[in-house]
Amino acid sequence: MSHTDATRAVEAVWRIESARLVAALTRMVGDVGLAEEFAQDALVSALEKWPDEGVPDNPGAWLTTVAKRRMLDRWRRDERFQKRMADLGRDIAGHDGQAEFDAVLEEDYGDDLLKLMFVCCHPVLSTEARVALTLRLLGGLTTEEVARAFLVPESTVAQRVVRAKRTLAARQVPFEVPVGADRDARLASVLEVVYLVFNEGYAATSGGDWIRPELCDEAMRLGRVLTALLPGEREVHGLVALMELHASRFRARVGPGGEPVPLAEQDRTRWDRRLVLRGFRALRHALSADPAEPRGPYALQAAIAAKHAQAAAVEDTDWAGIAGLYAELAAVTRSPVVELNRAVAVSMADGPGPALDIVDSLSEAGVLDGYHLLAAVRGDLLLRLRRPDEAREEFERAADLTLNERERDHLRGRAVSCAG
């Protein structure tokens, strides 16, 4: 096997096995930083040995065995590590402890994986740290890959990961699935991180690409893992439905030159019907049969996306129904961005005049100052009201505010078209 082929094999195995390995090791050593260190040692060993020895028949077990050896080596030479393990009730050098360790690594890891998700997305960490740690430990991405995906220096991502692991250790964040009132808040944090990853791929905040499908793919993979681990959580299914339905539009969202294609101008025959159907299935799990039971924000957003997917053309869309869903979502989230989206739906259902009133109220409140889409939506409404000069100013303002190059070019093009 060539060195290149072996490296690719290691990378593929690591993507599949790393989360399971780190999760099991974290349960054993009680420290996510140490667990990743042992797992990374196994990865380095694979990169060194597999080009010469070939990929083992059971690569996951191979990585587990090496990680176990590294852990035993640390125990033998480090008294502090021995004390830590003793505090956890582990005696990994003894026969019984060795058997226990084997059992930890070989049993079903679903519960451990869920615990690792809750640890990576713990509220004691900043949002940026939660995203970086999740992609690194659960997604198996390298620091370089995370940095490239978010267009930040690799050193910045590395610092976020290191600080996050130190914070978790210093705060003694337990490796557990939270219970009681804390559970809902913690689960909301996990879902928020997954959706942040998806959104950065769906509409990149900066750089030269409008979409980054690899980030969306990773977010959807994590979402599907969550539905398997928490099949009774409606909002988990709602998030997966939302991501599947949005991802179905990828082929139609980008023009031949990489420019954004607005929803109203997309060729809907290019939407991925397989993802649409998967989204519908997930949405059925997210929506309760009881109309009195409140619907969560992800389920409501997925229901809105489903309305778009059900329409063969933009003029066939149930805009009044979408506006009603946005009103329900706004009542749940109290989000000005949701209110801005409601204005767009109202403009299609009732005309641009009532929608402009909503947008102007948001502008006067100052809650979306600096948000480029507020100016972009206002520009579109003004253009439909035959006020092109004012519309041009709004599109220019929106172009100045966005950090994405493709979106900036698109908005400047709209500003120029107002002069015509």
Write up this protein.
It is a single chain. With 420 residues, this protein is an all-alpha fold. Among the domains are: 1-108; 121-173, Winged helix-like DNA-binding domain superfamily/Winged helix DNA-binding domain (Arc Repressor Mutant, subunit A), CATH 1.10.10; 182-288. It is 73% helix and 1% strand. A two-stranded parallel ribbon has the order 1-2. Helix 10 (181-202) runs parallel beside helix 12 and helix 14 runs antiparallel to helix 15 (297-310). It is elongated. It starts with a helix and ends with a helix.
Topology:
Blueprint: H1 3-29, H2 32-53, H3 59-77, H4 79-87, H5 95-106, H6 110-120, H7 127-137, H8 143-150, H9 154-170, H10 181-202, E1 206-207, H11 213-229, H12 234-247, H13 250-253, H14 273-286, H15 297-310, H16 319-333, H17 336-350, H18 352-365, H19 372-384, H20 388-401, E2 403-404, H21 405-419
Parallel strand pairs: 1-2
Helix pairs in contact: 1-2, 1-3, 1-6, 2-3, 3-4, 7-9, 7-10, 8-9, 10-11, 10-12, 11-12, 12-14, 12-15, 14-15, 15-16, 16-17, 17-18, 18-19, 19-20, 20-21
Looking at this protein, list some descriptive labels:
single chain, mainly alpha, Arc Repressor Mutant, subunit A, 2 strands, elongated
